[in-house]
Amino acid sequence: MQLALLGCYGPYPPAGGACSGYLVSEDGYNLLLDCGNGVMSRLLEHVSYLDLHAVVLSHLHADHISDIMIMRYGLEMAFNSGLRQAPLPLYAPGEPRSEFDRLPYKNAYNVKSVGNETVLEEGPFKITFLRGIHAVPSLAVRLETTSATLVYSGDTEYFSALADFAAEADIFLCEANYLESDLQKGLPNHLSAAGAAQIASAAGVRQLILTHLYPERDPGLSLAEAVKFYPSARLAAERQVIQL
To answer: Which of 21, 84, 95, 215 could form a Cys-Cys staple with 14, CB 3.0–4.6 A?
Structure first.
């Protein structure tokens, strides 16, 4: 399994950066997790959008889906010219309904809703989901193949069941938008770096990568919080490729 970190900021990027987007590949099968602003351009540094086999969206906030609205034009043109023979499978939570209903576009996507009970088999991947705690329905995603397991938190507050869902993953790609000081101010909907590390430690994951970083903050502050609970924690680095 290979993970390419296309974008790692939220809810907006810094200059030259991109929001959430992660390309996971194995045996020639390419799956895109989230597709925020700037992600399509970064994707093209690795594979063509025509070489995607499926897209999974953790939730329907713009910093996780905005380039879906751009990619659809290329997919539709490719479909019409015969370069693509079928719509691209796209999986996402069905709520908010107004946002979900915006995803279909002509022949670009085959859109299907997913939730806690959904189990997908896409290429080499078994894909399962766990609903988190966020302003809109947001799903953690577990990708399992015969070679490795990757778990992506999506956007969520702290909840203990996430540790069970991420248990023994080779990579836990976990949002860390806040510091503990933000939580003490009562800010909702996201994890602190310390919380992400505590979940990773309880889950016994092999690698913790902190993502969904706040663009106005020194990321070293997030890493300093995390290593207190998970000493080998790493920050997501855009354009980094990790082989599992």
So the answer is: 215
